[in-house]
Model the fold of this input.
Amino acid sequence: MATTYTPVRRRPSRLRTVIGLGALAEVVVYVLVASWIGLGWTLLATVATSALGALLLARQGRAALGELRLRAQEHRAPGRALGDAGLVAVGGLLMVLPGFVGDLLGLLCLLPFTRALPRALFARVLLRNLPDRLRGPVHVRSVRTETVTGPAEPYRAGPATRVIEGEVAP
Done:
């Protein structure tokens, strides 16, 4: 008995699609800029933005790492400083690579006053894709509507006799 092989079709991932469309956008913008100002000026602008990216990466990276070091010395959670260090690294990489769309996105990640936008977008995407159990603590605010009476010895195991009414705050 002969069996036929049917190949399994894989769905393209969103990340591959985004990277492919981003590369296509880079090429289109690069060709448009080169046709507008000329190839020589376009190459010069590419080198200049890469140099600017390296300079900004060094300056902002040093500041972000200094903040992380300070938080570690004070035994505080890294919090936003860790996210800022990651955004600075991504922004520096985007600025150093050739292309004008990546330079614009990298600049948004590197400058402190524009970093809130990519941080919010990344947090939204991350929280949407995380399972519920990994999303962090749920803050609950309770409102007691009537007096609660319980067993004389509450430390003993038994059936649940207490009801707490409340609402979950996001």
Q: What stands out?
A: The radius of gyration is 26 Å. The chain has five helices and two strands. The longest helix spans residues 39-73. The beta strands are 139-142, 166-169.
